[in-house]
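Open question from group meeting: does this chain pack into something compact, or does most of it stay loose? Before anyone orders reagents, we agreed to write out a predicted structure and look at it together. Recording both the input and the output here so the notebook holds the full record.
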Amino acid sequence: MLEGLTSLPVDSTKGLGERMPTEDVDEFIERRIVIGMIVSTEYLQQVSKYWAPQLLESSTARIVAGWCLDYFNHYHRAPQHDLEKIFYAKLQEGAVASNKVEWVESILGSLSDEYIRGQFNAQYLVDETKKYFHRQNLRNFVTNVHDQLNKGDATRAEQLALSYSPILNGHKTFINPFTKDARNVVKHAFQEREDPLIRFPKALGTFWNNELIRGGFVALTGPEKRGKTYFLMEFAMRALQDGCNTVFFQAGDMTERQLIRRVGIYLAKRSDQPRYCQRILVPTLDCVHNQQDTCKDPLREEGEKGVKAFLSNGISHEALVNACTKVPNHLPCHNCDKLSGSVWLGWREEVTPLTWKEAYRRFQSFETKYHPRFKLSTYPNDTLTVAEIKSLLHIWERQESFVADVIIIDYADILAPDPDSTRMEFRHQTNQIWKRLRGLSEERHCLVITATQAPARSYEKETLTMSDFSEDKRKLGHVTLFCGLNQTPDEKKIGLMRLNEIVVRESDFDSMRTVKVLQRLQMGRPVLGSYW
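Structure tokens returned:
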């Protein structure tokens, strides 16, 4: 059963249109088609190849679509806010009937600046448009045949029946990238990696930004209590800041209230628990050359020298605590591109525990700045299925025009099998779940991110490898990135996590090459900085 369905501050009317719970399917998809033509050049480029105005039921939709196509043919881009100027110019000319004005104004009213600047899942809408046009073409064909039969002209009805051909003429089933017409297809294939849905800065961005794309399926693995949920939350918060429609499915690892509290702590950078509000050491990015006093760059921070004596035997929690105690005025430096990454510990003074009122203000401030389109859906352990996820995505799309760009699942190991998989062995159930999560990323052209537990032997390993999978090794074959979370007890004291690529589908990878991530989970922050 569904325990909770919450939207942390979000205007549910933002997206591909307005809330339309009572509109039929045809009107719903036609509104989405028109809005896609208004806001997305990529969508216009693809749909114009097989456009046929008679496939739209609404005469008003046909008119607005025609304006978009005329604009695209002239300027080679989507009209976006220019459509409002076109509409009022047509209105002054008397070219728009009075009974069509309200429909057009409702479409224009759903186009916010934030929506146009945000992510738009053009490829998913292209797929849905193809399905709708195919259905409409078949419906029109059946109607024409039936009309001839009603007229008593069986010969003409038979001729029509034998002449049927799909309107898409092959666009639905195949593509030939070697033709001149494939220019935009090739362009978007390469552009996908240039425009990840989620962007991280510095070394961590270099590590995984190229995999955080539409159609990606990313999984994090590590032993229990290694911070996987914190990283999933970090993905969600950065996705929202990058304008993505984001869904976070909590499959039973935490309650709804626990996760909401974590988001509040993340925003405030301090805990609601007094024990985590005491004076604590926080890791900060520094440079080896700065610590060893060998840097002569004029950009270098001019702090107290003498750290080298305490770190001569390498970085450890004890050595860093000793160094920051003895050299309290040392200034970490990462001012130039010659950075050789290291870590420094600095004191964060005691703070007052976070209250719900301040957390609420933080939520509202985030809403004002980013206008997040976010849904948190929480289920008890072992009740959420992939089929249920698909059902909810379908409901939100139909009721609110909410199409997810990023889907985060915490986490895959506690998903229940779909009804058609319950009689399988557990290992095969696991494989089926991971296959369907991969299918979800492909069908909806979205990024799916989840986590999985590493096996018991990983407790003794410093760095995870391909052999460290749980239940079924086939899950490695379904992901586009399988990332390990590695941390020794001393690194945990420092606030240092090492991430490594265990599997990367489309890139060369080395499991022993790690990116180091600075973090302080007591402040709700799994990523404070990163370096190689």
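Observations to bring back to the group:
The chain has three domains: 15-162, 196-273+353-531, 279-348.
Residues 1-23 have pLDDT under 50 and may be disordered.
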